[in-house]
Fold this sequence. Notes:
Order of helices and strands: HHHEEEEEHEEEHEHEEEHHHHEHEH
Strand content: 15-25%
Radius of gyration: 26 Å
Strand order of the largest sheet: 5-4-3-6-9
Number of helices: 12
Distance between the termini: 34 Å
Shape: globular
Low-confidence stretches: 1-19
Number of strands: 14
Amino acid sequence: MTHVPGSGMPGSGMPGDDARPWNRRRLRSNNERLLLARLRAGGPASRAQLARDTGLSKPTVSTALAALEEAGLVREAGRQAPPERGRVAVLYEPDPTAGYVLGLDIGRSWLRVAAADLDGTVVARSDVRNRGRSAAAMADLAVGAARRVVAEAGVDPALVVHTVVGAPGVYDPERRRVRYAVNLPGWGRAALLDRMREELGTPLSVHNDANLAALGEYAFGAGRGSRLFVSIMVGTGLGMGVVADGRLFTGAHGAAGEIGFLPTLPSGGPGLEDAVAGGAVVRTARELGMAHPGSAKDVFDAAREGVEPAVAAVRQEAERLAHVIAAVAAVLDPDLVVLGGGLGGGADLLLPPVTATLHRIGPLRPRVSASTLGEDAVLLGAVATATEEARERVFTRSRETP
Length: 402
């Protein structure tokens, strides 16, 4: 009897396919991943088009598509008439309903929650005032809002495969807790996050809110197509996210972009966060004689009406932001700086003096623009991050399910 090399038959002296690094099962899986990646990047396509684009044979494409369709990962997207003679071609696309994700933005004033499909399309969302007086109360509020959003979307909770939470601070994966969340005291303890995972019933990851805002701007907003850009969030605190070639830069310990910890401005004075965040605008306006500004928004509204103390306070804020941007430009050389957070809503007043100050203080002058996502930047960044993770989980789960 003839033994086929690699058949694993007794006496062959060769390992079977299942013992090889590149066995048939792995090869099939790689082919299916390749087709899914092409469909997500290039849109609906026929078998023939997929074969041309991927270099796979038509029989291989047909087999892989059949397996993906049976697993619920792709679906028919329509028909394509032939250019002249020939058969009508069936078009395929990834099925975005194969899984869903949750994105949560936990801030001091608001909790924002969204459910999205695997295309990143938000199918339901809710914005809730953060009235939690403790970290545990905030976690309960977030879990309750997430459950309501899933119910409102009409989604089977079992299909929610990943949750991403955005919050101030830096997540420590070894201790499973958030550090430096000074604006949310008590938030991010390991037991708290573990309880949220258990109550939501999904894997859950925690990311810095400024990092998620940067990813949100890259995926959906002002940062699209940028080679290297930074997103600076100015609100209750001060934070920054860095995206290079589509990938987030977090540093050796996840703290890259925590510019609020820089000790002083170039001219000296208070710490950077105290000097630039929203509270500084209010303090400056009061010191300059504005009567009873309750928030940075009040100051910006008054500046639009020409109230001189408010105008001066906004001008000072812009000059300080310009020094921050100049320092960032000297280190990272970004092609774009996006201003977001609560003060991003005042970009119409901030951008002209920021740009003028940049031209005055140094030679590095990156383009500065306002966030196009506004208060949704963190939430949409959480959705984009969760979607990337969920696609892999859904694919792996489909391969493990008989």
